[in-house]
Design brief:
This protein is α/β, with parallel strands linked by helices and 312 residues long. It has one domain: Aldolase class I (TIM Barrel). Helix content is 34%, strand content 20%. It has nine helices and 16 strands. The strands form four sheets. It has an eight-stranded parallel β-sheet with strand order 3-16-15-10-9-8-7-4. α7 links the parallel β15 and β16. α7 packs across α9. The longest helix is centred in the last third of the chain and has 16 residues. The structure holds ligand YRO. The site of the ligand CC(C)(C)CCc1c(C(=O)O)[nH]c(=O)[nH]c1=O has 15 residues, from loops. Ligand YRO binds next to loops.
Length: 312
Amino acid sequence: VDLSTKVAGLSLPNLLFNASGVCCQTEADLKLMIESESGSLITKSATYEYREGNPSPRYLPLPSGLGSINSMGLPNEGYEYYLNFAKNYDYSSKKPLFISLSGLSLADNVKMCEAFVAADLPCVLEVNFSCPNVPGKPQLGYDMEAMENALNVLAPLIKKPFGVKLPPYFDIAHFDTAAAIFNKFDNLVYVTCINSVGNGLAIDFETESALIKPKDGFGGLGGLMVLNTALANVNAFYRRLPTKQVIGVGGVTSGKEVFLHVLAGASAVQIGTTLKEEGPTVFARINKELTDIMIAKGYKSLDEFRGKVKTL
Ligand SMILES: CC(C)(C)CCc1c(C(=O)O)[nH]c(=O)[nH]c1=O
């Protein structure tokens, strides 16, 4: 069977890669991704300056085994580190490189995009719309006017095909409004759905305490528990963005959830919590599981079932 796919005009040998933020902050992390059986890799969202991030514990798998919670606080090496990595990347390798940017302001996103555009590299830029907005206002992805304003500035600046990372939406009107905005920008060629489900709270029964230290224990939820929200966001945007692609992320623990993400419309699928817990060998395991599922169901390529989820 053929697990290859194309995203933003680039060919991926298989559809799997890391969720931004997992196994991608340092060159050592990224080397593990390069050496893994992933089809691609994306860097940790970069800010203009280096950031230490929040105090630990700031990430934990949940005792239920159903997912994870994190409030990392955008720890990253600063955008120049990832620009340098992108300048030295071996683009003759089969794995395309994606670069995630999460400026703390539109001005920072502009400065970072300008630097990457000036370098004119084959990597694909992805803007993280869960990035913080003006304090007191919701994240960019939940501020439709601010999101459109940002795209009015960034899309022309980036010029080449690029993507955006989206928070989960839960209201059909939000799918409609967000998609109408994205359809205004031809070089916005894909959306990645979903970022973690925001501001969950994990409490330990014995200690009667929040599990993570930052934000009184509030943090983004990932893992199996967000699968159905992820599938809905993938399919909602797959239906609403006919000229664009969707990268699916959320709830992947096996080949089965990857299969469901592709049925929902995903062109590629990212792994976060399960990669964090299992390590980069997860890509070989899940590629094999997906292969076995496709053989059992008689599919030879992803195109044969992408977006073909049936309705009753
Ligand atoms: C949540 C933000 C810190 C504003 C952005 C970075 C980020 C983080 C993080 O660095 O805390 N965690 C996530 O699950 N998704 C993200 O997009």
